[in-house]
Write a structure and sequence with these properties.
8 helices, Deoxyribonuclease I, Chain A, alpha+beta
Length: about 260
């Protein structure tokens, strides 16, 4: 079972690239982030024609998450995170597919920091950890997949100096991410590439893609029952280099 995460950076703008990727790689489940469209304008017919059922939690112009499943519609479990009733951002969607609990996550960026946006990021991570604990207690195979907007280690960025002041690399962001690992969740890509140097994002500016000046912010965290079934975890890097591509590459895990 292949479960992927892909920050699509605008599903309508990248629809040809998305359909192309689905057709060429055929993931069983695809978690999308930054779909940047309202619920009413989500391109469900195009997704269905590609062979996938879908659920989505949209927001006009920015944010938005979706979960696609090949040959079936994911069974929705939850949308949004509890703990902050005034939070209207569409950043979390959870479903079940073939007995695996899967969440599509678009964590707040947090810039500029310090400030309200960074405070919101840290609060959101705390709320996500609370939901993760509830899923953990169910003892099901689970995959928390998405754009976490956290560079976990110095080995996960092309230049420590270039990103030193960014919210993605602040000690508080990294500590909040490490708490998930401390709780027992497995960073799938890290488990296969402990030496680092594997990127999932390359900025559109500063010639970042040709220079391979990227970093790792798209993660798939596995519960113990899922980690026990882990066969592989990789990045579909080549798709970042295609015409009018997202600034992220798809990342996936293969479970037994």
């Amino acid at each position: 079972m292949r479960i992927a995460t892909f920050n699509i950076n605008g599903i309508k703008a990248r629809l040809p690239r998305l359909v192309e990727w689905l057709s060429e790689t055929r993931p069983d489940v695809a978690c999308l982030q930054e779909i940047k469209t309202s619920d009413e304008t989500f391109p469900v017919k195009d997704i269905e024609e590609a062979g996938y059922g879908a659920i989505w939690h949209g927001q006009k112009g920015f944010n938005g998450v979706a979960i696609l499943a090949r040959g079936q519609v994911p069974v929705e479990v939850a949308r949004g995170l509890e703990g902050e009733a005034e939070d209207e951002h569409s950043r979390y969607l959870e479903a079940e597919v073939d007995g695996v609990r899967i969440a599509s996550i678009y964590l707040p960026n947090g810039n500029p920091q310090p400030g309200p946006k960074f405070d919101y990021k840290l609060r959101w991570m705390k709320r996500l950890r609370a939901r993760a604990a509830e899923i953990w207690a169910e003892e099901v195979p689970a995959v928390l997949a998405g754009d976490y907007n956290v560079i976990p280690r110095d080995k996960d960025v092309y230049s420590i100096k270039a990103m030193a002041d960014d919210a993605l690399m602040q000690p508080e962001s990294r500590a909040a991410y490490r708490r998930f690992l401390g709780d027992g969740w497995t960073d799938a890509l890290l488990s296969r590439h402990p030496a680092g140097g594997v990127w999932t994002y390359w900025d559109y500016q500063m010639n970042a893609w040709p220079r391979d000046a990227g970093f790792r912010i798209d993660h798939l965290l596995l519960s113990p029952p899922a980690a026990d079934r882990l066969l592989d975890a990789q990045v579909d890097k080549e798709f970042r280099g295609r015409e009018k591509a997202s600034d992220h590459a798809p990342v996936w895990v293969e479970l037994r």
